[in-house]
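subagent[fold] <- orchestrator: predict structure for attached chain, return tokens only, no commentary.
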Amino acid sequence: MLSFAALQREWFSNPRGDILAGIVVALALIPEAIGFSIIAGVDPRVGLYASFSIAVIIALVGGRPGMISAATAAIAVLVVPLVRDHGVEYLFAATILMGIVQGIAGFLRFDLLMQFVSRSVITGFVNALAILIFLAQLPELTGVGWETYAMVAGGLAIIYLFPHLTKAVPSPLVAIIVLSALSIWLTLPVNTVGDMGELPSSLPYFLLPDVPLSLETLQIILPYSLTMAAVGLLESLLTAQIVDDLTDTPSDKEREVKGQGIANFVTGFFGGMGGCAMIGQSVINVKSGGHTRLSTMVAGLFLLFLIVVLGRWVAQIPMPALVAVMIMVSIGTFSWTSIRNLRSHPWHSSVVMVATVVVVVWTHDLAQGVLVGVLLSGIFFASKVRRLFAVRSNLSADGTTRAYVFTGQIFFASVERFLAAFDFKEVIDAVTIDVSRAHFWDISAVAALDKVVLKFRREGTSVEIVGLNQASATMIDRFGVHDKAGAEDVLAAH
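subagent[fold] -> orchestrator:
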């Protein structure tokens, strides 16, 4: 049960900063939600309702206070074929199933997979997102008049200079208000939020997706739901890690996975598309002073208030004001020290970081970029561990026994060196294999040991294995064949 101290810490420890930050996030969410709806091929209200629903629910059940979750481009691009071929009702059904899959993943501790994502991958992920956020602003900066560039420059000036006067009000909020007032007063010829799409004027309501409850429907939506769930959780967990670093506070990743599932499950019943954590909006929130669940709740509720009650005024907000905010986010998100560290960090860490950035920016797919980064990290790690391997051999004084002493890790990447260390043609009576300073990690290592023992036996040499630790001995007893009947036949079969 939530204690009063926890309630105070997670909700009301910073009310003024959280409320103002939530307002800034809500304003920035509107054009993005509309844009993501357009990408997915659905009505703007689908993205807007999703952003409201997910933000409010994740504020209650999420595991990372201060993190913003809503409709995202990462999910929107995945559902384009589904909407095109089957319609928006199947999107709602897929979103509900996405939530169920994420809930199951939470109980299966999907969050523990983050332990295998290296710091280089996270840095690459952050840098790639910063680049994508900036590139997403370019359509608003091409084919426009000088007024747009002047407003963006003015907005950036306010954002970076206003904090020197006072930090009582978030500078991005000041920039949006000032530029909106100027745009309306001077009737400037710039794009506005209203140009992105029509804002809904009614509240979202509960509905059941109008799809047949059949196996065929499940076969249609399941592949999309699995992909949406995986990408959503990956982006959410990485964003949670980034917000952890920004705020120097821990988060409950298991709760966050389950919370994402609940948020998407409920959202599907209110006419919304799937979503996940948003690094850009989360950075806006933190840099604007938002740190608790209250900021996320305010962002969701104020978003709904803006589009339903103040829609006529919100439609007049100039896009250059929001572009300036997002450029600020892009600049603040990018890890500039990572460029300087390219020379000082180990080369393989730099390769992983750069590869993650390149793949994400090239494909606009966060999952592919992170997957490439994780695979490269694994390959480099295996290569490094492979080199932490040494062997020496000693021949007895009478020339009848040779002792091989191994140090290091014996696994699939080092078995070739393990096998190459032995001289099977040497004429001796006995061989001792000392592995007291080594460890057998997998069945490849066990199979290599079987091959060594059986080869020596075929040459008439007896073999003694000494120094096995308990874990290695257990694995060899279970999977090894050299001491079992018919060992030669079993090994030949493999």
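orchestrator: received. Logging for downstream: The longest strand covers residues 430-440. The chain has a mean pLDDT of 86.
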